[in-house]
Amino acid sequence: MTASALADALARTGGTIRAEPLTAWNCILNSDTPIISPAVPACVFTPACVADVLAACTAAARLGVKVSGRGSGHHYGGMSLVQGGLVLDLSRLNSVQVDLVTRTARVGPAASARALRAAAAPHGLHFTLPHLSDVGLGGFILGAYLGVVTELVLRLHPVPPRLRLITAVYPLEQLEQVGSFYRDWLATAAPCLDPSVALVGPPPAAANDVEGDGASGGGEGGGGSGGGSATSRAVVLLGCHSFAGEGDEATEAAYARVRALLPASRLSLEEGLVPYEEALSVLDPAWNWPGVCLYGHGAFMPVQALQGGPGGTLAALWAAAAAMTSPRSILLLAPAASAQPPGLLAAGGGGVAPSSLCFRDTLYVGLYGMWTRTAGGAEADGDAAHVAWVRSVRSALAAAPAPPAAVPAAASGSAAPPSTAAAPSPSSASGPASALVGHYVNEVMHDEPGQARLCYDGPTLARLLELKRRVDPRGLLREL
């Protein structure tokens, strides 16, 4: 009765009720797998305009149906799916309007980073964006759980037409030296820089040369699922984008330090000025290809917790990279936005971060098991082994101690506002302080309930729960 009444109400709008299930870009949400059993909504509705969104929410509230918004669908954990609920597929609300007078952009929740760049960059303007082009702005900026958003107004800032990039590649054996360099480099890196370290599997050609690693299967560009067996020849990438103009002295000084780091053991060094759009698209192929499967965990770490030696976080990352079950997988270290960025202000940045990776207080630690879905299915593709690898890395890092002088900073996800600050992990409250603190709200997985509350510090969580109690007393939006 409720389902038919909801369908009748939605049929009177200008939107569309989807007859077929939503298809996610992450294939583990579209097929049988021992990892995740995605929730099955009662109805998926695609509004044509804001009025349709309001009508759908009104009908759902009247009928007591839970509501969840879905922008571009980039959340790889599928958190827009609510069992027996109404999913608002906001994909048609993807407009981008740039106002050159006010230097602002009005964007729909499903507008992508690529679409905003295309509208703003010809005018020399920029918004703090992710380095992945297909990410929807609604989810990127606000995370999940907080309601249904139909429009955002974003302040734009000048950006040079070309960005200076540098990438140095090292063998895994140099991880401790590179990681220690990176930790110390962050302390003095100018706000215009967004340095990161990634541990990745071998390039496709090298992966296919490794006998017995199963890396020759499925997917364009090589690097198949690997069936869950360990890869080899993982490498360390030290990279940076500079959002300063050409000839910037701080950029040159920082990049000179990279050039001088372990030149004898370095595998390659690439540096140059790259057009803005190309510079912010360089990572796209590594995150989206036909048949991509992704299981991950995003947490935070005080910068000083990045330590070498037995039992340290760098040792845990080295072991994880050596045991990587797919050449597509990635271990990422990048600066995470803090709740309050005093370092940015002190460095003369004017409180404006040109990139989502320009903060300095806390590291974001992304653990991504990535592989390709083949005709063999989940068992043949090693789903269980890839997921076990991610969980083992998380456990190893959580077991590593925080540095004695470190006070875990409340940290939020990429360029997210203070409301998404990370909370201290439960382990730090009941035992020795852990190197990991909190969780990233945009990377909460269906199969691990309770993660959402780890994404906020205590006062922020209390404020959000009180707000939810007042505006959503019947619990029609997703639970925190």
From TrEMBL:
Instruction: Write out the biased-composition intervals (Gly residues).
Output: 214-228
The answer, when asked if Oxidoreductase is one of the entry's keywords, is yes
**Domain FAD-binding PCMH-type positions:** 37-204
- UniProt xrefs under InterPro entries: FAD-bd_PCMH, FAD-bd_PCMH-like_sf, FAD-bd_PCMH_sub2, FAD-linked_Oxidoreductase, Oxid_FAD_bind_N
PROSITE patterns linked? FAD_PCMH
Keywords, ordered alphabetically:
FAD, Flavoprotein, Oxidoreductase
Q: Looking at the record, which segments are called Disordered?
A: 204-228, 407-430
User: What are the required cofactors?
Assistant: FAD
Give a Pfam family name: FAD_binding_4
Named from the GO MF annotations, one term is: oxidoreductase activity
**This protein's record includes keyword Chloroplast:** no
Protein family membership: Belongs to the oxygen-dependent FAD-linked oxidoreductase family.
What PANTHER family does the record point to? BINDING OXIDOREDUCTASE, PUTATIVE (AFU_ORTHOLOGUE AFUA_1G17690)-RELATED (PTHR42973), FAD-BINDING PCMH-TYPE DOMAIN-CONTAINING PROTEIN (PTHR42973:SF39)
> What protein name is recorded for this chain?
FAD-binding PCMH-type domain-containing protein
Q: Which organism does this sequence originate in? A: Tetrabaena socialis
